[in-house]
Design brief:
- With 290 residues, the chain is mainly α.
- The chain has eleven helices and no strands.
- The longest helix has 57 residues.
Length: 290
């Protein structure tokens, strides 16, 4: 029994790690599509193919929301789409690892603002310090592009909305159907937007296979892996592991895109990761507010 439990836990940990690797590898591949079809076209292909795959797998039409429930689904989908397009616009201008670290301010803010523990002020300080360390390097000519930094922070805000409205919609249908519907809403907005910017280039056989690969690696596969992990490990452990994503993004950017970060940028990423891990470490007692 003991060994069976540990085998299940190790499988869950492996799923989380593989999910993070596939997401960031997918983002690195997506960035290589930018010279061909831009962030708009890349977003259109990712969301379009992701929506198709998720709808085929989860068949959301079997239990569609009713009335007011659609409002949360639509906002959830718009946040999902906004998160995707602004993040791709951001990493067009700044390194992938920095973009993910800045985007993490969204879920981090949700976790910290919903907490009543005084100790969480420490994690706020870590996150703010990490962002402040990047400020001297925000310079379009010699350092980080300020527009790229702003777009990554906007993507983080969209991620926060995605989390908040995702929780609301989670009570209305299964998680898989919710994501499939949200992805469909996002695709309905951003596929035409991408087509308007890139036109027939989206139908090129040079980009379609890569678009499908990005959709699978960035959405369909990691989502499935995360669902398996969440069923077999505590939510707290899952959150702590996911906090390592900025570091994995930086490594993916280095290995796939040859993006080198300065020691100061690595320190900034580390501080955001520490803040994220700290905010994930919830006490056993809900009444603790020290």
């Amino acid at each position: 029994m003991f060994f069976a439990h540990h085998r299940v836990l190790l499988t869950a940990i492996g799923c989380v790690l593989l999910a993070m690797v596939t997401i960031q590898s997918g983002a690195s591949i997506a960035k290589q599509l930018f010279p061909l079809i831009g962030p708009e076209g890349t977003t259109a292909l990712r969301l379009g193919f992701s929506a198709l795959v998720l709808c085929l797998v989860f068949r959301p039409w079997k239990a569609l929301p009713e009335g007011q429930q659609w409002r949360s689904i639509i906002v959830y989908g718009l946040c999902l789409g906004g998160m995707n397009i602004t993040f791709y616009y951001a990493i067009e201008r700044i390194p992938l690892g920095i973009g993910v670290a800045l985007e993490f301010t969204g879920p981090l803010a949700v976790a910290l603002l919903s907490s009543k523990r005084k100790r969480d002020l420490l994690w706020v300080a870590f996150a703010i310090t990490g962002i402040i360390l990047l400020l001297p390097e925000i310079d379009a000519e010699t350092g980080l592009d300020p527009v790229g930094v702003a777009l990554a922070l906007i993507a983080g805000a969209c991620w926060a909305g995605y989390i908040l409205f995702g929780k609301r919609t989670g009570t209305q249908s299964s998680g898989g159907r919710t994501v499939a519907l949200g992805m469909t809403v996002a695709a309905m907005v951003l596929v035409p937007y991408g087509a308007a910017h890139q036109g027939m280039a989206l139908l090129s056989w040079e980009v379609i296979p890569l678009g499908i690969l990005v959709a699978i690696m960035s959405s369909a596969l990691p989502y499935t892996l995360e669902m398996v992990a969440l069923r077999n490990m505590p939510a707290q452990g899952f959150s702590v592991m996911m906090s390592m994503e900025p570091a994995i993004a930086a490594l993916a950017g280095f290995l796939i895109l040859s993006e080198l970060l300065t020691p100061l940028q690595w320190l900034a990423i580390a501080l955001v990761i520490i803040a994220s891990i700290g905010s994930s470490m919830q006490p056993e007692s809900k009444s603790e507010t020290d």
